[in-house]
Amino acid sequence: PDPPPGCQYTTMEHAGVSFPDPYEPHGVRMLYDGEEVNLSPAEEEAATFFASMDPDGMHLGNPKTAPIFQKNFFADFRDGLSKPHKKLIKRFEKCDFGPIRRHLNEQKIIKKAITDEEKQRNKDARNVTMFKFGYALVDGHIEKVGNYNMEPPGAFRGRGEHPKMGKLKQRVAPEQVSLNVSECARVPPCAVPGHAWGELRHDPQVQWLCQWKENINNQVKYMQLAAMSSFKGKSDRSKYNKAALLCDNIDLIRASYKKKLKAKGSEVRQLATAMWVIDRLALRVGGEKDTDEEADTVGCCSLRVEHLHFDPNEEGGDNQEIELEFLGKDSMLFKQTIDFGAAMYNENNGMGSQVYENLFKFCRKKKPSEQVFDSLTPTTLNAHLKEIMEGLTAKVFRTYNASKTLQDELSKTEQLSSWRSLTAAEKVVEYNNANREVAILCNHQRSVSKAQETQLDNIGKKLETLKNQKKMLKKFLKQLNAGSTKGIVVKENEKKVVEKANEAVERAKRMKNEARTNEEKIAATEADEKAKQQKRDAAQLKFNQAHLWDKIPSKEQVAKRIQMWNTKISKVELDLKHKDDNKEVSLGTSKINYMDPRISVAWCKRNEVPIEKIFSKTLRDKFNWAMAVPPDWEFNGEVGKQG
Fold it and tell me: Is the pTM of this model over 0.85?
């Protein structure tokens, strides 16, 4: 039976949250002004948080973020020092965390020497924790729990240039945690000796299982059911159905705010302009923040004059371009030049030119730090949205626009005359192109990591090798057609190289199993790294001569291999283009949160593309409820009426 109205469940039972192990001191001393300092365990733990940071990484290796990180860390570090140590340690520049950093790096090497048996024991221990804390019993059904491990203490990293990066995240004690179980359920015992839960609640109207407040941003954190749980499935379905309601209402909503774009009253005109911006540019509502305490992230209501650059290319005349530049959610840069005079914003009475005129007037005679929408607050805007349609928020607009854009972009490609001749891999590229349009619309960006750069570089080298191999094969064919075998090379003996690499791997494995001291473990890890490199070298040798034969080939063999290499080159070119195009765009965010998954499932069925090419296993589990839609399913108003 369904739970009572307004309730999420009738009965719920779980084991609470799993806490990290207490800190174990390593005894390695930091230096201050060249002298060793004997820290207490709590002080040593804080010093270790800083020492564990990569000095060349994205926080300490960045000249913009390093000073923020160091300043915040040192302030919190000193707050936790004893009086004698606080009196001694006064300047960050005199602190040397090098000895601790070297110790941590050595421990990493030692841990790599772990045997297969130890790996299995560690895995078994993780499984014990997972089976104890990772499941809840809800209305008689077993549901997976999402984040059942409590966040460990450490240095807060944040994203972008977060003003609080480097501050110390405190260890959360059981007394800070509130549990939520049904009245009849067994209260889980606290697993930390000498401690007890802070509060016990019986609130079936909320979905969270545990909650606590973290000390960095003073935000409430929750332990909830996993994304693939039936709870989340119902919630997701409801979210996308609500967005689909806009399909039948969007024309009326747009007509309403377009009328008000020319209103005499500034408040009404600002409200209508903000509605246009949220709808057409997919901006979030945003709100004022204390930038000393929080990252200066911006949404529609908190746009300042300094975020808008009119006629950025100084073209003059009737130019209607504005460059919008600000930090969006998670401190990701939003930087786009919008041409409000373009056809896409003005056709079908789009009124882009009127919006440009309004924004120009809102910014005129204002200082750079003043609000663009000075008569508008997030509360006013959200209240107006709810008046238009029950449950309407800026996120519903974003979900609608993301889903509609995906469906329209996919539909365009399916109507191409060449569509039926495309392979499944080529169709996936077109899907990713449509996904990218959505990600750009929603400003879902990501920083290019070192791993991505290395991967792109490796794919580029692979492509170059394949092309060189194809050239060589063509020369071989020319020689064979001329009746000559001169210049045709055969394979080197790979077997010896592969055998040597395999022997090195086995030798390193024996060293790991026999290692007892730290020195032996370090030696075993070094041997293992060398063996892995030998394996990579052997694999590279095989790839470098994959186009060759053990003996002189026939003309037919060479011609057939040239065809094979054409296919290989096309695949790698496709892969390289896809990865390069999407390296700065996060396709996953819109896929997880904004695009109705039923659009993708129906598209896959219609075009005979395996769903695993589009959705990872995690997403297939999360969107299990969407998998049964027919191939002709559409995101429209009828879907919205299903509730």
Answer: no
